Amino acid sequence: MSREYIQFYEQETHHDETLLKFAKINFKFMQLHYVQELQTIVKWWKELDLESKIPNYYRVRAVECLYWAMAVYMEPQYSVARIILSKSLVLWTIIDDLYDAYCTLPEAIAFTENMERWETDAIDMPDHMKVLLRSLIDLMEDFKGEVRSEGRLYSVEYGIDEWKRLFRADLTISKWARTGYIPNYDEYMEVGIVTGGVDVTVAFAFIGMGEAGKEAFDWIRSRPKFIQTIDLKSRLRDDVATYKDEMARGEIATGINCYMKQYKVTEEEAFLEFHRRIKHTSKLVNEEYFKTTVPLKLVRIAFNVGRVIDTNYKHGDGLTYTGIVGGQITSLFLDLITI
Question: pLDDT tens digits, residue range 289-304?
Answer without folding.
Answer: 999 999 999 999 999 9
